[in-house]
Specification:
Helix content is 82%, strand content 0%. The protein is an all-alpha fold and 121 residues long. The chain has one domain.
């Protein structure tokens, strides 16, 4: 069940909590990117904390904080590159490659989320 909670937390933090400003400016502004990463990390902490309590799993708060912080940092590096590539592709009308890039961005995020799940003991 924990994998589903992790994937839900990613969807919620990366899509629901990302503002229009963050989405439209993270490719050209470190302030917008940092703002996105901050809200992503806080939302991940909140969802995992509430979710693990609701599921009755034995995941400690320190583990959730460490997991969320590491994934927040890695998320920033991924988005730093993929947002720049995707914004250039969109501007050039390369819609297919834009979506290929967005899909690869999500693949990388999910791969890292799963890879680091051992931190949620």
């Amino acid at each position: 069940m924990l994998i589903y909670l992790v994937l839900f937390s990613h969807w919620f933090a990366d899509f629901v909590c990302q503002t229009d400003y963050q989405a439209q400016n993270k490719s050209k502004s470190m302030i917008a990117l940092s703002s996105h990463i901050s809200s992503y990390t806080v939302a991940t902490i909140a969802v995992l904390t509430i979710g693990t309590m609701a599921l009755g799993t034995e995941v400690g708060l320190v583990d959730i904080l460490m997991y969320s912080a590491i994934n927040g940092v890695v998320h920033m590096f991924i988005d730093f590159f993929t947002s720049r590539v995707s914004s250039r592709l969109w501007a050039r009308g390369k819609v297919h490659y834009f979506f290929v890039t967005i899909g690869f961005d999500q693949f990388l995020h999910v791969a890292i989320l799963i890879y680091t799940m051992s931190l949620l003991r």
